[in-house]
Amino acid sequence: MPNKQFSGIQAVNYWESGPHYLGYEREFFTKQMLEYLGSHLIKVLLGQRRSGKSTLFKQVIAKLITSGVERHNILYLNFELHELRYIQTDETLIEIITQYFDELKPVGKVYLFFDEIQEVDGWEKVINSYLANDRIDCELFLTGSNANLLSTELSTYVTGRYIEILVFPFSFHEYSDYYRFPLNKDTFIKYLESSGMPELFALKTNMQKTSYLTSLKVSILMNDIVKRFNIKNPKLLELLLDFLIDNIGKLFSFNSIVNKLNALGQHTNVVTISNYIHYLELTFLVHSVSRYDLKGKKILEGERKYYLNDLGFSNYLSSTFDNGINRRLENYIYQELLQAGCKIYVGNMFNLEIDFVAERNHKKYYIQVTYLLHSEEVINREYGNLEKIRDNWPKLVISLDDVSFPDKNGIQHISAWHFSAFLKKLG
After folding, report:
1. Selecting from 3.40.50.300, 3.40.630.40, 3.10.310.10, 3.40.50.1820, what CATH number does the domain 3-166 have?
2. Using an 8 Å Cβ cutoff, are 185 and 400 in contact?
3. Is the pLDDT of residue 1 over 50?
4. Given pLDDT bands bounded at 50, 70 and 90, which one contains residue 405?
5. pTM score > 0.85 for this model?
6. Helix boundaries (H) for 36-193
7. Please, which residues have CB within 8 angstroms of residue 57's CB and are 6 or more apart in sequence?
8. Deepest in the core among 7, 283, 302, 409, taking most CB within 10 A?
């Protein structure tokens, strides 16, 4: 390989200095990666593009250097950088890694960081070969923007030999800490009306934020779905995503979505829409939630709800005024439950809906979400649905009320801006 190419590798690594700009430290994620050092498990960061995975890699690299790891023992390759666009196959990647060892001759354990690894065809073979090579003591770190990274590709080769860490946009607590805002209702509403995408924080105007999220949306659709899955109708795919952005937290069947899109002049069918939604979920843009029959204790086929990975897509790109504060609040609660590692369902019982049934660590939580408990009718509705559930698992009502309501028949009220702290206490 020409030295010119290896010079490009040198230019994007930190063998002489840096990394210089580390951004806001997201200790929740860096701590997880560092805790698995020495386990010989691959550390895999998965999440939506631009949610901060590359910055997390830099923060971990900086911590390794600070702890005494020799700089030349760390190889960092970000396959989205234009300098590395020529690394498109497993053969080229192996050449690069081989030259790294030949040129720098690192002594002792090496740390290999591969950012957006799915950009390299056949990458999983490379990872498996280094994982299986007992002559090289190495720690492997990967990021990817597609859930297929584990479900089909990596798991085929290294079943049970990786740890998955899902990276989300900034949480409410991270957002508040970044801006040094108090953890109160006013800050929480600002968060609901903004975005957790890190790069948006430096943008000053709504026009800039709208432009950024529009370009991000198009980039994900075209690069991670249209090209990867050979989509025949990109316009339909974008229209479908826009439809889901405009209708967060509403129940839809595939048939009803098909009918809505057909009415807009986009003739399609259930199979196509089912596949397209699956692809949107793989890229972490949207998440679907199935209904759960609380009486029959089974998942119900048919209608599902859809939530966004980041509310910025609704706040800056939605074409409807229907996604009011209540729907955004519901989306936020879903995000918090997801990040807490819960399995989440929409509860169904006697034609009554429970907003969320969350399961974690063999425990179950029933949750109702409402804007304000401002009338007896609303209180009776939100508490009444939960009172009909006869088991003893915790039941919660979450709202934006300024005051906390006392427990009612064992049902606990939580102000929304305290919900993440409540989840942390659960362990």
Report:
1. 3.40.50.300
2. yes
3. no
4. very high
5. yes
6. 53-66, 90-104, 123-132, 148, 155-158, 172-179, 185-192
7. 45, 76, 78, 113, 115, 141, 143
8. 283
